[in-house]
Design goal:
seven-stranded antiparallel β-sheet, alpha+beta, about 325 residues, 7 strands
């Protein structure tokens, strides 16, 4: 009876509905997921921390390598001193020998042999020579001439610049100084061509107690050297004042000779052409080389072919 009653009691118990069972199942599943996630979070944090640490170390290593490579790529040229073009001319000619005897006789007829070296502590860098002439015509007065040639050469220097640039600056200063002489009248500046890299002449009149002097200053730059020619003339004691144009032509002639002498002293020709004629182009010099085609000079050699000799003999017989 008891067992039957127990069965009856269990029968009287309300069985759980499907909705209640599903809700409890869902709660159980959520609980299990929560436990799994809770267990997984520390592992994820550990993994993230490890991966983060390894990435940082790689980044730091990469930055170190980059800085090292950047430091290694620094070239020594950054600290190297700047360079300038080497000076073309390394010496100067003897100053009293830059003008020919003919030119000196024309410019200073009574003093062609009286050249006076100005003296220099460094003749390869600076030098000068002067001549004076007094042609006494008795009661008619006399003609006076004075000639001065100055040579100045500049060496290239990393601080001051190339020799050419220094010479160019000095050339301009010489021209300006010539125009700024106290008491100068009728100042005239004339550019010159065919003399060095740049050239100019400054002419003016200068009144002195002895008479009226006509002054000519001709300046030229050739490479890293500057040549200055001062030439003046005067008619004294009643003699006629010399013509300014004649003096200017004479000064320009002397300037060209002096420039040519500077070029010749440095191995650039031996005549006035060295100051006015450009060097031969590579194609011309190549045509004269032994490896090139036969030159015209070769065809003019003393040895002639047999046919040429025979033609010459026939021509001689015909003329006779």
């Amino acid at each position: 009876m008891q067992r039957a009653a127990q069965r009856d009691d269990r029968a009287l118990e309300v069985p759980p509905t499907p909705s209640r069972r599903s809700g409890s199942d869902r709660r159980a599943r959520r609980l299990r997921r929560a436990l799994v996630c809770a267990a997984a979070v520390p592992a994820m944090l550990i993994t993230a921390a490890c991966s983060s640490g390894s990435g940082d170390s790689k980044a730091e290593a990469g930055s170190e390598n980059t800085s090292q490579s950047a430091a290694g790529s620094t070239t020594p040229s950054a600290s190297a001193s700047p360079t300038v073009r080497a000076a073309a001319y390394q010496k100067l000619p003897e100053p009293c020998g830059v003008l020919s005897k003919k030119t000196l006789t024309e410019l200073v007829p009574k003093g062609a042999k009286s050249g006076k070296d100005g003296g220099s502590d460094d003749p390869s860098a600076r030098s000068s020579c002067s001549w004076d002439s007094l042609d006494n015509n008795g009661v008619k007065g006399s003609q006076f001439r004075w000639l001065h040639v100055s040579l100045l050469r500049f060496d290239s220097d990393a601080t001051r610049g190339s020799g050419d640039d220094q010479a160019h600056t000095y050339f301009g200063r010489q021209s300006e100084d010539a125009k700024a002489v106290d008491g100068a009248k009728n100042v005239k500046v004339v550019p010159l061509s065919g003399t060095g890299a740049e050239a100019a002449a400054v002419r003016y009149d200068l009144k002195k107690k002895e008479g009226l002097f006509r002054q000519q200053t001709a300046v030229a730059r050739v490479e890293n050297a500057v040549v200055t020619v001062d030439y003046n003339g005067a008619g004294l004691a009643g003699e006629k004042t010399p013509d300014a144009d004649d003096l200017a032509k004479a000064a320009e002639k002397a300037l060209k000779e002096a420039v040519a002498a500077v070029s010749a002293a440095n191995g650039e020709g031996s005549a006035q052409n060295s100051a006015t004629t450009p060097p031969a182009s590579p194609s011309r010099s190549a045509s004269r080389s032994p490896s090139g085609s036969p030159s015209k000079s070769a065809s003019k050699s003393p040895s002639k072919s047999p046919s040429a000799k025979a033609s010459a003999a026939r021509a001689a017989v015909a003329k006779s």
